[in-house]
Design brief:
This protein has helices at about 10-20, 25-35, 45-70, 75-120, 140-150, 150-170, 170-200, 205-210, 220-235, 240-245, 255-285, 290-305, 310-345, 350-365, 385-425, 435-460, 475-500. It is an all-alpha fold and about 500 residues long. It has a single domain, classed as Up-down Bundle (Amino acid/polyamine transporter I). It binds tryptophan.
């Protein structure tokens, strides 16, 4: 059916869209925050190891899977391992949907801060009224929490979802036209920020910290766990996204080249973003707290507020950059989910996009709930932010790794890594060697299993995540979040898997 399967107009269009998906808030904010948390330059070594061992090989695997089958994640896995594998596919897409829901809530706050940049965000007077009335919060800190505690954010969520819907409505073609314009624009904004950051007095100090290694922290397994989960997130692996995007490519395309280009574009963006953020912070000796959201919403803005000129302009530029980086990522997930539904249920595209966008919008609104549960701001402030923190723990720190683990096993052992490698090498200029089989079959599953096992062990040792900061009066909130995540992913994945069989796979 021609309507169901559109194609990318060009290879450049595909690479831009895929790198737009990979480059997101993760590159600009989470990377810098992790690098800071884990001791500056020390983070690079686990990061580069994760990049070579896990990043490029798994990217290659997900791309070939899509291009070879011409199907989205669940059906392409179905072809390999029937229903059990299809279940993993749906599970991955649903887990990614949870991430997408709160990611859009964060994007909505970014939009709010962008609007605020034109209004009172940079005033130096503390904010003392409103939701967190008893606290006098300095700006932009105060502005952020005032916004979080207001119902306006729900409007912002609706706006972000409307944009997603518009861009994805016509599939690869409309995604391509949007990313062709947005992704280069994003690079331009980044370059402007770096030039500003590094040319500030003392700005180079930040760059220095970022690049000077501290080897002692490398003995800490947390650093490795951070690097490996960051790699999945930043490259959009384990979401089913790259498979869906690659399914719109011609069967014969050089996937080694594609995988390498996307990975390098993503990671170089991450490096230079780290440079911009660190130099900005050091020029004004703002010492970041490790929390990632604080980095994005008040630590960097605090630095910007101290710029000698063009505060409003640079502030707007920063939030605008974050916004388009995030938007080109969130659309990729909507597409991954929609493509999976189209493969199986043969709905009209418009209907699938509408259903996915509207129902996810409701989910996003839960993460933007402004109800203040923690007026002293000891942990997360509002109900929405608390939920976000809890769900992020499950779907990000565990979910992506779980998908990666099963993906490697299904392709490595059930399909056969060597068989997929033959397919890869048929159309690539650079041949992939036997080492790829070893990485997919053994090395990556073992590493991922150790990381997950270590996480579960800390969970058992210290109690369920979030018990300490869940809201007074609702002590079961952390269990609720775990249960809701589990039923949303596992329950719905079962439903989607067993609802019916793929029409073209019958008989
Ligand atoms: N790679 C993105 C980043 O680094 C994250 C991401 C990609 C994402 N696709 C997504 C998040 C879809 C949510 C939904 O920021």
């Amino acid at each position: 059916m021609a309507e169901l399967r559109s194609q990318w107009g060009s290879k450049v269009g595909f690479v831009l869209a895929a790198s737009g998906s990979a480059i997101g808030l993760g590159n600009i904010v989470f990377f810098s925050a992790n690098a800071y948390k884990y001791g500056g330059g020390a983070f690079y070594i686990p990061y580069i190891v994760a990049f070579c061992v896990l990043g490029i090989p798994i990217m290659l695997m997900e791309l070939v899977l899509g291009a070879h089958t011409g199907k989205a994640f669940p059906q392409s896995l179905y072809r390999i391992g029937r229903r059990p594998a299809e279940f993993i596919g749906w599970w991955g897409v649903l887990n990614a949907t949870v991430i997408c829901m709160y990611y859009v809530a964060i994007l909505a706050w970014v939009l709010g801060m962008f609007i605020g940049s034109m209004k009172g965000l940079w005033n130096t007077a503390p904010v003392t009224s409103g939701a967190f009335g008893s606290l006098a919060l300095p700006n932009p800190f105060g502005y952020f929490f005032e916004m979080l505690g207001s119902w306006d954010t729900l409007w912002y969520v609706a706006i972000v979802w409307a944009l997603n819907l518009l861009i994805v409505l016509r599939g690869a073609r409309s995604i391509e036209s949007a990313t062709r314009f947005l992704v280069p624009l994003m690079w331009l904004c980044m370059v402007a920020l770096i030039v500003r950051g590094v040319s500030l007095p003392n700005g180079e100090q930040g760059a220095y910290l970022l690049f000077s290694p501290n080897f002692t922290v490398m003995a800490d397994p947390e650093v490795w766990k951070g690097a490996f989960s960051q790699m999945f997130f930043t490259l959009s692996l384990g979401f089913g996204i790259m498979t869906a995007y690659a399914s719109y490519l011609p069967k014969k395309s050089d996937q080694v080249h594609n995988a390498a280009t996307i990975c390098f574009l993503n990671c170089s963006f991450e490096f230079i973003a780290g440079l911009a953020v660190f130099s900005l912070l050091f020029a004004f000796s703002v010492v970041p707290k490790a929390s990632t959201l604080s980095m994005m919403f008040f630590v960097v803005p605090q630095g910007i507020a101290k710029l000698p000129h063009f505060v409003v302009g640079f502030g707007m530029l920063f939030f605008f950059l974050l916004f388009i980086a995030g938007l080109t990522s969130s659309i990729s997930l909507v597409e991954a989910f929609v493509a999976s539904i189209l493969d199986k249920f043969r709905w009209r595209r418009k209907k699938a996009v509408l259903v996915v966008a509207l129902s996810s919008m409701l989910g996003s609104m839960c993460f933007a709930l402004p109800h203040v549960v923690d007026p002293t701001l000891a942990s997360n402030g509002t109900l929405g932010l608390t939920l976000l923190d809890l769900f992020d723990h499950w779907s990000f720190s565990y979910g992506l790794l779980i998908v990666g683990f099963f993906e490697c096993l299904i392709i490595g052992w059930v399909f056969g890594a060597h068989k997929l490698r033959e397919i890869i090498n048929r159309d690539s200029t650079l041949d992939v060697g036997w080492w790829w089989d070893a990485l997919i079959k053994v090395v990556n599953p073992v590493i991922i299993a150790v990381v997950i096992g270590w996480g579960i062990w800390t969970e058992v040792r210290d109690g369920l995540y979030g018990a300490s900061f869940t809201v007074k009066g609702i002590p079961w909130l952390s269990w609720f979040a775990f249960g809701a995540w589990f039923f949303f992913t596992t329950g719905l994945a079962l439903v989607f898997t067993f609802w019916r069989t793929y029409r073209e796979e019958r008989g």
